Automatic annotation (TrEMBL):
Coiled-coil stretches noted in the UniProt entry, renumbered to this chain: none
Biased composition (Low complexity): 482-501
MF term (GO), any: ATP binding
Disordered as annotated region, ranges: 482-507
The protein's name: ATP-binding protein
InterPro entries linked to this entry: ATPase_Atu1862_pred, HerA-like, HerA_central, P-loop_NTPase
Domain Helicase HerA central, chain residue ranges per copy: 10-78
Keywords: ATP-binding, Nucleotide-binding
Annotated CDD domains: TrwB_TraG_TraD_VirD4 (cd01127)
Length: 507
């Protein structure tokens, strides 16, 4: 079923149609300076496609909450914990509800963290709920910045990772990213490069005009046209829009934002002396008649009983927490990590959610000292997921941990899981165990991870005469015992003995 979304009119006066099915497969990038009509374009797209596809809007300014009145979008207030936002996002995908994540009122770092948690919940939803969804991110340069700014590196990595997952890996999960930015130069290139459809609006800086012309396949001398575009006029290109650069004008919308563009108002008609007096001289306090105090009615017996029931004895002041020794602190953190990984859902939760849960548990246990940083937590979590025992410190295992620290964060736990099995001469871990260490439920993904690691020269796979998998680690000088790829070493079926060949038979 094809759905053509009416975005407005082309320069020739014909309807500008956007192929919604193609958009779901190829994603969209919208660029334009402030006041060029980006939000108007996004609103037109959302209104026209509201009855066709599920929608999620990451709204940093609260402009799209008005969609709830006419189109039934749920407004999710971001003033919640990141765990709650991730669970809400999972239920949104399950029940196919269109939502607006309202980030208004949060600082930039808070917006980045909340958006990362919500996008992570959409991305990590169970395969049974991978329904098609438009994920619209307004002011995308805030969540996928090209360079570090005033926010912490941790918040930037979380947000940039979530945006990268949306644009690079979201298609197979039914997530179609639609991102809008004021400046292409401020948007991370690996996020912008994944879009195949473009709508370029008015821009003035040479570097942004040059990037827009390159994305549209235009010559550099044609880039000057972006300065002359009127508000609401864009140049479209992409398989869902047009195979050649196509100027178009965005049509009208049915809902409006809570804030509008500034309008000219007449100045107050007052003499300069009066204005000076109002500004520089404090006015005399006006006499205000004090209101007559109202006598409260006497409390009823029910009110008195309720107050007594709510009364609580004064709690004694907490005693100071004694400082922990380094050994006690390490043991407490190991115990907390074990408790987290005992939860069956912990293997499929994002690092951000597990890290926040870890910090909360440390506060509950009164673990003193400086909190563990996120990079250290990633390494400790990878070691714990590999099944290493606390305090394990033999030389071979320490070498494996040091080697894993130089690998990509996604495959550290997988490498350590295989290394532990190899060092202990145990069978090769099953596909399910490898997928779980990676944070997935897909055995096929586990096999792709092993193939990727083998292509990098990290591991070498071979099979024995029964076809059982053996994984060798050249850098550690060891290999696992044989095991089936499924993790179940089933005996080979008995075969009938073939008759001995006649060595003297002719021919």
């Amino acid at each position: 079923m094809k759905a053509g979304i009416d975005m407005g009119l082309t320069s020739e006066g014909t309807p500008a149609l956007l192929d919604l099915e193609e958009l779901l497969a190829t994603r969209l990038l919208v660029q334009g300076n402030s006041g060029s009509g980006k939000s108007h374009l996004l609103r037109r797209l959302l209104e026209q496609s509201a009855s066709w596809v599920q929608q999620a809007i990451i709204d940093p300014e609260g402009d799209f909450v008005t969609l709830a009145d006419k189109y039934g979008h749920l407004v999710v207030d971001a003033a919640q914990s990141e765990n709650d936002l991730q669970r809400i996002a999972a239920r949104v995908r399950q029940h196919r509800a269109s939502v607006v994540l309202n980030l208004e009122g949060l600082d930039i770092e808070g917006q980045m963290r909340c958006a990362a948690a919500f996008l992570g919940g959409l991305f990590d939803a169970d395969r049974d709920f991978w329904y098609p969804m438009l994920v619209v991110v307004d002011e995308a340069q805030l969540f996928a910045p090209m360079a570090a700014g005033e926010v912490s590196d941790e918040a930037r990595k979380l947000s940039l990772g979530a945006m990268t997952n949306l644009m690079c890996r979201g298609r197979k999960r039914g997530l179609a990213g639609v991102i809008a930015t004021q400046r292409l130069a401020k948007l991370a290139k690996n996020v912008a490069a994944e879009a195949s459809n473009f709508l370029m609006g008015r821009t003035f800086l040479d570097i942004d005009m040059a990037r827009a012309a390159d994305l549209l396949g235009m010559e550099r001398r044609q880039a000057e046209m972006f300065r002359d575009l009127q508000r609401g006029h864009f140049v479209a290109l992409g398989p869902a829009l047009s195979r050649r650069p196509l100027p178009l004008r965005i049509g009208s919308v049915e809902t409006s934002t809570r804030s509008s563009s500034p309008k000219l108002l007449p100045l107050p008609d007052a003499p300069a002396e009066d204005i000076r007096e109002l500004i520089f001289e404090a006015p005399e306090p006006e006499f205000v008649r004090a209101p007559r105090p109202r006598v409260a009615p006497p409390p009823t017996t029910a009110d008195i009983m309720a107050q007594l029931a709510r009364a609580r004895p004064a709690e004694p002041s907490p005693e100071p927490v004694p400082e922990m020794s380094p050994e006690e602190r390490a043991a407490a953190m190991d115990e907390i990590l074990r408790e987290i990984l005992e939860d069956p859902d912990a293997a499929f939760a994002s690092i951000a959610v597990l890290y926040q849960d870890f910090l909360v548990r440390c506060r509950i246990r009164r673990v003193t000292g400086e909190p563990m940083s996120l990079p250290v937590f990633r390494r400790r979590l990878a070691v714990a997921r590999a099944g290493a025992q606390p305090g394990q410190s033999d030389e071979a295992w320490e070498k494996a941990v040091s080697f894993a620290a130089e690998l990509e964060e996604d495959i550290q736990a997988v490498f350590l899981l295989i290394a532990r099995a190899a060092l202990q001469k145990e069978p090769c871990p099953s596909d399910d165990a490898i997928a779980r260490a990676f944070g997935s439920r897909s055995p096929a993904r586990a096999r792709r991870i092993i193939s990727y690691m083998e292509s990098r020269g990290i591991v070498v796979c071979r099979t024995d005469l029964r076809g059982a998998r053996i994984v060798a680690l050249p850098d550690l000088g060891c290999e696992t015992a044989a095991a089936e790829a499924s993790g179940k070493a089933e005996p080979a079926p008995a075969r009938r003995a073939a008759p001995a060949p006649d060595l003297f038979a002719s021919g």
